[in-house]
From TrEMBL:
Keyword check for Membrane: yes
Protein's name according to its UniProt entry: Tetratricopeptide repeat protein
PANTHER family the record matches: CELLULOSE SYNTHASE OPERON PROTEIN C, TPR REPEAT-CONTAINING PROTEIN MJ0263
Keywords, ordered alphabetically: Membrane, Repeat, TPR repeat, Transmembrane, Transmembrane helix
Per-repeat ranges for TPR: 80-113, 114-147, 148-181, 182-215
Keyword Ligase included in the entry's annotation: no
Domain of life of the native organism: Bacteria
Length: 242
């Protein structure tokens, strides 16, 4: 950590903040951020009729892509890459049950398919099946030990189960294995922000931006920093300035 703030200290502070994590203050800062995203989403959906026309065209393209992928699978039911593309297609549309089914089908054909194993874990975690997601991520780590991305995903499943100290330890391990992993560093910042350790969260997110300023993760980190600096009021009267 910057400023002499070590990992052991992070774990100690996060342990002390367990009560805060479980209180109504949990994810206060992220609640502000989510609300802002929702507002922009509503505004975008009501701008002009051109938006509806573009959406209709996009829907037609999606239907065409789905038809093409299903045709490939019909021609060769064991075409793993076609199943994988279809699973990712469904995932990107938010159709998690269909995505899960495709990833499971792949693993019936090829139990050691790393991508399907990882993506299955992601879908399970996002569907509220975090315990099952842990099993998938453990299997992925058996296939690719030390994969920093999988470590982060496993940490997120633990976080969803409120096993915060274990999650932070995995983010730590991922960052140590791959110091350029924006995801690992970003999630460490999330842990600090969620615990009310806002200055350290900002420091971590500034590292995210430094790694790759033009990435989507960096953009998200900037939004988080702005939330903490403006809405939470770091350094202002009556705020937590740890």
């Amino acid at each position: 950590m910057s400023g002499g703030f070590g990992w052991s200290e992070a774990r100690r502070l996060c342990g002390e903040m367990a009560g805060v994590w479980r209180s109504e203050r949990r994810w206060v800062w992220r609640g502000f951020l989510s609300a802002a995203v929702l507002v922009f989403g509503v505004a975008g959906a009501t701008l002009t009729p051109r938006f509806a026309a573009a959406q209709s065209e996009a829907n037609a393209d999606e239907a065409s892509e789905e038809t093409a992928l299903r045709a490939k699978i019909a021609a060769d039911p064991e075409d793993v890459e076609a199943h994988f593309d279809l699973g990712n297609f469904y995932y990107n549309l938010g159709r998690r049950p269909q995505a899960e089914a495709e990833y499971r089908r792949i693993l019936e054909i090829d139990p050691k398919h790393l991508g399907a194993t990882i993506n299955l874990g992601v879908v399970l975690n996002e569907s509220g099946k975090s315990e099952e997601a842990l099993v998938a991520f453990d299997q992925a780590l058996e296939l690719d030990p030390g994969n920093s991305h999988v470590l982060c995903n496993r940490g997120q499943a633990l976080y969803a189960l409120r096993r915060y100290d274990e999650a932070l330890a995995l983010y730590e391990e991922a960052a140590q294995r791959d110091p350029e992993s924006q995801l690992a560093v970003y999630l460490i910042g999330v842990s600090f922000a969620d615990a009310g350790i806002y200055k350290e969260a900002i420091r971590e997110w500034e590292k995210v931006i430094a790694i790759d300023p033009d990435s989507e993760t960096a953009a998200t980190a900037r939004e988080g920093i702005q939330v903490l600096r403006t809405l939470v009021g770091i350094g202002g009267p009556g705020t937590d300035s740890k």
